[in-house]
Amino acid sequence: MIIRKGLPADNPALTALWRRSVEATHTFLTGEDIRSIEAELETVYLPAVKVWICDIGGEPAGFMGLDGAKVEMLFVEPERRGQGVGTRLLDHARRLCGRLLVDVNEQNPQARGFYLRYGFRIVGRSSTDSAGRPFPLIHMALE
């Protein structure tokens, strides 16, 4: 596993990875929700963050988007879950930033559990996501 900076040329592969990951974990989203978010992933969301990719055998196994010390996104290939990909990405973010923040969809208990096991603590909640959609968020911090 190697961690490398993402490049704009990686965006199509990351978008496909994002979709597979979301379909496997975000069961509260409708197909329309997924298509709507996906339509902005390459043009709005990925360019707004510093992207780090975990490659295994030259293929992205997962990726993370950082905005300063905030983990704005972390997605792992479904068949790579439980193999340390997300942990390696967070370890990298921690080396870069120290203290980390993340917002987790309340309806995604697997993600919340992952961050809690890593050492994050719940520091707040909001009733909508950052785009105002009706998906409550759990705000978490790692000291």
How would you sum up this structure, described in words?
This protein is of the alpha+beta class and 143 residues long. The protein has a single domain, classed as 3-Layer(aba) Sandwich (Aminopeptidase). The chain has 4 helices and 7 strands, in the order βααβββαβαββ. The protein has helices at residues 11-25, 31-45, 85-97, 109-118; strands spanning 2-5, 50-56, 59-67, 70-76, 100-105, 121-126, 137-142. A 7-stranded mixed sheet has the order 1-2-3-4-5-7-6. Helix 1 runs antiparallel to helix 2. The longest helix is centred in the first third of the chain and has 15 residues, at 11-25. The chain is globular, with a radius of gyration of 14 Å. The two termini are 26 Å apart. The model has no long low-confidence stretch (mean pLDDT 93).
Shape: globular
| CA radius of gyration | 14 Å
β-sheet strand percentage: 25-35%
Helix/strand order, N-terminal first: EHHEEEHEHEE
Summarize the biggest pleated sheet. 7 strands, mixed
Q: Could you say what the CATH topology is called? A: Aminopeptidase
**Strand order of the biggest β-sheet:** 1-2-3-4-5-7-6
Low-confidence stretches: none
Count of alpha/pi helices: 4
Mean of all residue-level pLDDT scores:
93
Query: What's the CATH first level?
Result: Alpha Beta
Structural class designation: alpha+beta
Number of strands: 7
Short description:
The chain is an alpha+beta fold. It has four helices and seven strands; from the N terminus they run E-H-H-E-E-E-H-E-H-E-E.
